[in-house]
């Protein structure tokens, strides 16, 4: 059993830890919320209130399941399962719908934190990080759609870097035209596709750039070489654009 001095020192230590946690919550840009063992909201930072467009008096004491509209209870079950375990809930995605925000996609990360410990008793809370990843998920969907369009095009598509001339992307049709395996061209110098001639690949590239039209495009015939050394001519359209 602790004497008065040990108890006072323990109280000071807990206050320092609490202050440290509060400082972290106040400075990080992500939405942070602290939950008690009943998954009630004990505190939250400014980013949290901004994200959910609410105020402390309407939030503190309420259940996180009600705030996040966790109707199927899957998130609540995972959060409750963290108590008493050295485990972390990582990047749990939740579809969130509200009148103020509309439909959003949230990423939830949580871990238990010991905030008090006396003899054999201890108090544990959950520190929950909530990120709004709606724009990122939308960008991923758009990128996937664009990728599928490129993959299924009948024309060969090649993307290269204007800095080091390395091949960044080749769609299946382009790989088929030049007899390369899927992904085999990635990282190679684009000059391996140009048939040897009187001018160097650098001179050919400079000539093309010199004759780009008002849309930054060039259209004409190019002398290429397949993986097995076969020479052939292609009608190609080349664009220069900034990423």
Number of helices: 8
Q: Output the strand order for the largest sheet.
A: 2-1-5-4-3
Number of strands: 9
Largest sheet: 5 strands, antiparallel
Low-confidence stretches: none
Order of helices and strands: HEEHHHHEEEHEEHHEE
- What's the overall average pLDDT, rounded? 83
Radius of gyration: 29 Å
What sort of overall outline do the alpha carbons produce when their principal axes are compared?
A: elongated
- What structural class is derived from the secondary structure elements? alpha+beta
Instruction: Classify the beta-strand content into a percent band.
Output: 25-35%
Give the helix proportion (percent range): 25-40%
Distance between the termini: 66 Å
Brief overview:
This protein has 243 residues and is α+β, with helices and mostly antiparallel strands.
How would you characterize the overall build of this protein?
- The protein is an alpha+beta fold and 243 residues long.
- It contains eight helices and nine strands.
- The protein has helices spanning 4-27, 46-52, 56-59, 64-67, 74-80, 134-151, 172-177, 201-210; strands spanning 31-35, 41-44, 88-98, 102-118, 121-132, 158-160, 167-170, 217-225, 231-239.
- The longest helix is centred in the first third of the chain and has 24 residues, at 4-27.
- It starts with a helix and ends with a strand.
- The relative contact order is 0.08.
């Amino acid at each position: 059993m602790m004497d008065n001095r040990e108890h006072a020192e323990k109280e000071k230590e807990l206050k320092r830890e609490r202050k440290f946690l509060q400082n972290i919550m106040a400075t990080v840009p992500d939405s942070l919320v602290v939950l008690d063992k009943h998954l009630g909201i004990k505190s939250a930072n400014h980013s949290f209130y901004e994200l959910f467009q609410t105020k402390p008096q309407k939030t503190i004491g309420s259940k996180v399941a009600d705030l996040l509209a966790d109707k199927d209870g899957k998130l609540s079950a995972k959060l409750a399962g963290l108590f008493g375990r050295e485990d972390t809930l990582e990047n749990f995605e939740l579809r969130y719908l509200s009148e103020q925000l509309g439909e959003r996609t949230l990423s939830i990360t949580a871990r238990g934190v010991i905030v008090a410990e006396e003899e054999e008793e201890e108090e544990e809370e959950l520190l929950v990080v909530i990120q709004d990843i709606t724009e990122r998920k939308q960008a991923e969907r758009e990128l996937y759609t664009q990728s599928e369009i490129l993959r299924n095009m009948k024309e060969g598509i090649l993307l290269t870097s204007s800095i080091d001339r390395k091949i960044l992307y080749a769609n299946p049709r382009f790989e088929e035209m030049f007899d390369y395996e899927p992904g085999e061209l990635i990282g190679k110098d684009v000059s391996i596709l140009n048939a040897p001639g009187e001018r160097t690949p650098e001179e050919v590239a400079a000539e093309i750039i010199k004759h780009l039209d008002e849309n930054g495009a060039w259209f004409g015939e190019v002398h290429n070489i397949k993986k097995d050394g076969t020479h052939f001519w292609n009608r190609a359209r080349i664009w220069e654009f900034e990423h």
